[in-house]
Amino acid sequence: MFASVPSAMLRGARGQAVQVEVHLGKGLPGLHIVGLPDESIREARDRARAALASSGFDWPNHLITISLAPCDGRKTGSGLDLAIAVGVLVVAGFIDVSRIEGLAFIGELGLDGSVRPIRGVVPIVAAIENSDVVVPASTLVEANIAARGQVHPVRTLRELLATLCDGEPWPDHEPRGPDIAPLHVPDLCEVQGQPLARLALEIAAAGAHHSLFMGPPGSGKTMLASRLPGILPPLERAQALEATMVHSAAGAPLPPSGLIERPPFRAPHHTSSQVAIIGGGSQVARPGEVSLAHHGVLFLDEIAEFPASVLDSLRQPLEDGVVLPHRSQLRDPMPARFLLIAAMNPCPCGGGGGPGDCTCGDAALQRYTRRLSGPVLDRFDLRVNVHRPAIDEIMASEPGEPSSVVAARVLEARRKALDRQACLNRSIEPADLDRFAPLEPAARARLRHEMERGRLSGRGYHRVRRVARTIADLREGCSAAISEADAALALELRAPLSRAQQGRAA
Amino acid sequence: MSCPSSTPPEGYLASLAGFDRMTTARLASLLAHHDPVAAFHVAVGDAPPPPGIGALLAKDDTLAETWRRDGRLRDPAECWQRCVDTGTTVIAHDDPRYPAALFHDPRAPAVLFVRGDLSMLDARRVGIVGTRNATQRGRETAAEFGFELSALGVTVVSGLAKGIDGAAHRGALAHPDARPLAVVGNGPDAPYPKQHASLWAEVSARGAVVSEWPPGTRPDAFRFPLRNRILAALVEVLVVVESRERGGSLITAKEAGERGVELFAVPGPVDSRASAGTNQLLCDGAAPATSVDDLMMALGLDQRRAGRTRFDGRRRPDGDGVDVLGHCRQGARTIEQLMLLLDRPIADTAMIVARLEHDGWLRETGGWFETIDVWGDLA
Q1: Does residue A465 lie in a domain region?
Q2: The domain containing residue A138 runs over which residues?
Q3: Least CA distance to B358: which residue of chain A?
Q4: A468 in a domain, yes or no?
Q5: Is residue A233 domain-shared with residue A147, that is, in the same domain?
Q6: A504 contact residues in B (CB cutoff 8 A)
Q7: What is the pLDDT of residue B2?
Q8: Distance from CA of residue B155 to its chain's centroid?
Q9: How far, in Å, CA of B154 to CA of B331, rounded?
Q10: Does residue A372 sit in the same domain as residue A279?
Q11: Cβ A193–B336 below 8 Å, yes or no?
């Protein structure tokens, strides 16, 4: 007897369809699983046997061979349990093979016959084509997001078999979203004062410019960064689906609707390991923070405290928008296209305010700033000095501009950029800058002067022009060329890293 | 220990002074009983020590071991060669060239290493010291004082550190007749900090660089407070331009106070951290130094001069630029503060500020803008 049951498993941040083929033949009774199963799948036989017994079925006393096709490539995860159990029931003759036609099965089995949720239902279901799919009831919301056919939720194996064997209708379970409060996105109106930093945030959002905020403790760097998602436009359907898949694959909580519609905001701590941030793992590649921030914001607070190895491994995702785990077994790229926002103190002592306030020695200062390698530092289009707001500003009664107003400007500026060059301003090629971001003579002279003084490198010149383009886009009306004021502001938003770097080209 | 007999006693001094854990007191007591050659042999254990040193060596056998090792490492002939190569003069306490101002000091260095010529010590001497992390205003004040004092024939003594020290010497050297003196905390041959290499060379060419330590000594942190006492002893008047609550310049001020040197401090804004130490000195009784005239009075050289002005070739700011400069003169400002003060959009403010920076009126540090006055190019 032979049966073939479609299922799927998680591979990195994507799903992979797996055909569970079950053969029942002569020989000493036993169960073999082939097709490079890992330990979690080999244990499936014990779970399936117990679940069947608990559900009132006898395990067939024959030699059963299970093949997980395609047979090359490691198979992993307990999500194939249900498909294995169904396959065994088919070859044992309990289920008629015609009943499972056009059905795929996903779910982990409990020894009592319950069907349990697994991690990554969204990408797994997305990998199943041309079939309806049976999923654990508690993952119904997730499955609905990506399913192409019908979704049938089940709580127990017995419930499933009532439908498949006895022809009862599919059980009807209410889709229940995860029990988490909707993500609260703080509003920009709570930020008092800080006009330069607020503007920098707006520019970062409009042009998708990676930004570094530098300022003493208590100047509001984290407060500002956490408000960035609130002024970014909501995700488009395709982006939302990609982001949701990554979150589902990582087992990260999803919003009640199941679909991530707001740009995610991830703020890993600087003690996080490289794997936690970049992703990876020994057997199973798990998405890291950079992938969870896909289409959203990755916020690195105290970026100088991150290990240099972690920061350097950010270069690939910053460049390509994907992460490739560096393991022989794991070659699946994971998406990681994010807006990088970083914050740091100007120096280890935390400084305070004006010139002459810092107590750091030069050596300590250099040690601190050297931790940010040039290539990483170079990715930041904006480097903004954030100052502690004056007492008057903190006590001011009138609130700042709310996020909704800023978000409208950001959306408009993004639309201008996309209409003009079909990409956001961060990604304008240097060759296209003269076409899309022409400079007025005074602006050109200002930039030229900076370069002559050795304070602006060639690469910095391109970055300043892109930022200036965004500044011009954010203004009302349409200005084709970049004015001197735009260029001056873009230069102001490209502060040297510290007084150790004062006057050096960047 | 065999050394060629051609090595002069100075070579032995250069070797001894560079021994690990060789303090001023130990070197002085060694040299009090012996000539340099004999002192060297005593220190490395080749000859019986005199009673005082003997007790010391007996009490601490690691010291004897250290010195025996250093005696092997620091061959007097090589040390002497290094002095010759770097143009360093070795002046022992009993040398007629030894500065009179230091001779009777309770903690006078037993030996001095000098690059340059110490004859400027015959002139009146004012020390200018201050923090390394200074404000633009502080450095400009130091440069101005350095220049004016040099113009009046007063020797400017400082430490060649970053910030105030360097600015004082740059200001002094801007006058063609300046003969500045630098007292440093490492060997007189190697510039420290490295950025001051050219300044260091010019000071030693036109004036002198003095150290208690032989050529090749590294700038260890403990040497700088010791250096400060020499600086304090060599000057008649000491000005602290800027200093935080704690700092090396306050050590110099304390040493100066113990030696009866007249102490001045430049007053700063009460809320400026860079002036916290100097303002405290003023509270504690230091005299305020608001211009070079104050210092000249203290030296008994009341030379009121017609306001000497330096040529200022910068393009005069106009319109909002004048307002921005006015605001920044009252203290460092951020662009956000300027924007509110001017009531202009931030991009316009950035442009005004950028133009002022371009014309040399403003300087930015960590997002703070300070004015540059006519001494700015030396600060």
Answers
A1: no
A2: 2-166
A3: A449
A4: no
A5: no
A6: none
A7: 44
A8: 13
A9: 31
A10: yes
A11: yes
Domain residue ranges of chain B, discontinuous segments joined by +: 1-85, 116-298, 320-378
Residue A224 phi, psi dihedral angles, 5° rounding: -65, -50
CA gap A111, A47 in Å, rounded: 6
Asked whether A400 and A189 are in contact (CB, 8 A), the reply is yes
Q: Are A358 and A349 in contact (CB under 8 A)?
A: yes
Q: What is the pLDDT of residues A130-160, one digit of tens each?
A: 899 999 998 998 899 889 899 999 999 999 9
HEC string of A253-264?
Answer: CCCCCCCCCCCC
CB A74 within 8 A of CB A329: yes
- B343, B344, B351, B370: which to substitute to probe chain A, counting the most A Cβ within 10 Å? B351
* DSSP string of B305-341, one letter each residue: ---------SPPP-THHHHHHHHHHTS-EEHHHHHHH
Q: Do B368 and A356 touch (CB under 8 A)?
A: no
Tens of each residue's pLDDT in chain A, 506 residues: 899 999 999 988 889 999 999 999 988 998 999 999 988 899 999 999 999 999 999 899 999 999 998 988 888 889 999 999 999 999 999 999 999 999 999 999 999 999 999 999 999 999 998 899 999 998 998 899 889 899 999 999 999 999 998 888 998 888 876 666 666 778 888 888 788 899 999 999 999 999 999 888 888 888 899 999 999 999 999 999 999 999 998 888 888 888 888 899 999 999 988 888 888 776 677 889 999 999 999 999 989 889 888 888 888 888 888 888 766 565 678 899 999 999 988 888 776 667 777 777 777 777 887 777 777 777 899 999 888 877 777 776 677 889 999 999 999 999 999 999 999 999 999 999 999 999 999 999 999 988 888 788 888 899 999 999 999 999 877 678 899 999 999 998 988 765 545 444 44
Phi, psi for residue B307 in degrees, rounded to 5: -45, 105
Q: Which residues in chain A have their CB less than 8 angstroms from residue B195's CB?
A: none
pLDDT in tens, B18-50: 888 888 888 888 888 888 888 888 888 888 777
A296 vs A228: CA distance, rounded Å: 9
Does residue A20 belong to any structural domain of this protein? yes
Give ipTM to 2 decimals: 0.78
Q: Are residues A142 and A221 in the same domain?
A: no
Other Cβ atoms less than 10 A from the Cβ of B343: the count is 7
Residues in chain B with CB shorter than 8 Å from the CB of A492 are 335, 350, 353-354
Domain contains A430? no
Asked if residue B317 has a cis previous peptide bond (ω within 30° of 0), the answer is no
3-class SS at A110? coil
Q: Do B350 and A387 touch (CB under 8 A)?
A: no
The answer as to CATH 3.40.50.150 being correct for domain B320-378 is no
C-beta of residue A290 within 8 angstroms of C-beta of residue A277: yes
Q: What's the CA gap between B277 and B246, in Å, rounded?
A: 7
CATH code given to domain B116-298: 3.40.50.450
What pLDDT was estimated at residue A182? 60
Burial B299-331 (b: 16+ CB within 10 A, else e): beeeeeeeeeeeeeeeeebeebbeebbebbeeb
3-state helix, strand, coil in chain B (%, to 5): 50, 15, 40
For chain A, what is the largest distance between any 2 Cα atoms, rounded to a whole number of angstroms? 88
Nearest CA in chain B to A484: B351
> What tokens appear for A220 in the block?
């509001």
| Residue keyed to tokens 């000098």 | B114
Residue among A191, A192, A194, A196 with most chain B CBs within 10 A, to mutate: A196
Residues A209 and A152 in one domain: no
Residues A102 and A225 in one domain: no
- Pair (A239, A156) in one structural domain: no
| Element housing A488 (H / E) | helix A484-492
Contact A354 B133 (CB under 8 A): no
Q: Are A107 and A136 in contact (CB under 8 A)?
A: yes
Task: Identify the pLDDT of residue B1.
Answer: 43
What's the alpha-carbon Rg for chain A, to the nearest Å? 28
Alpha-carbon A382 to chain mean position: 22
